[in-house]
């Protein structure tokens, strides 16, 4: 990765942490709007914002874990409209499991 690609990559990571934090906070206060707003940042919008040059450098196994993680944020956006808080928390837990699984495997060198 180039220096600027790495900076953007890590900045998106920090955004995902803020996102999932906002989702958990929203679940705790049963604030559906807050959950939706927090989750939206890290869904398809972020996936699409990844530059092609960076995308081309990511290994297949990385993308196989990364893409579904963005999709889980989209799922939270949709489920936050109507689902029980416990069900939304379960999807958030799946997303967090992906964070942990990827961090155990990859470094941004
Ligand atoms: C597909 C792989 C992958 C997934 C999924 C993933 N990460 Fe990361 N993340 C990385 C890599 C690689 C690094 C860089 C680690 C390093 O080189 O030290 C990183 C770094 C980070 C950092 C540190 C950023 C910095 O400024 O140094 C944070 C915070 C982070 N991730 C949060 C998350 C959260 C929250 C999730 C889940 C919602 C998540 N990540 C999901 C691969 C992933």
UniProtKB/TrEMBL annotation:
GO terms for biological process: electron transport chain. One of its GO terms (molecular function) is heme binding. This is Cytochrome C.
């Amino acid at each position: 990765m180039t220096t600027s690609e790495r900076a953007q990559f890590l900045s998106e990571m920090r955004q995902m942490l803020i996102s999932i934090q906002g989702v958990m906070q929203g679940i705790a206060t049963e604030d559906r709007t807050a959950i939706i707003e927090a989750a939206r940042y890290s869904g398809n919008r972020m996936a699409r914002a990844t530059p092609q040059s960076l995308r081309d450098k990511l290994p297949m196994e990385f993308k196989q874990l990364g893409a579904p993680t963005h999709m889980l944020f989209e799922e939270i956006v949709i489920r936050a409209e109507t689902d029980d808080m416990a069900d939304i928390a379960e999807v958030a837990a799946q997303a967090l499991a992906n964070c942990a699984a990827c961090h155990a495997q990859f470094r941004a060198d």
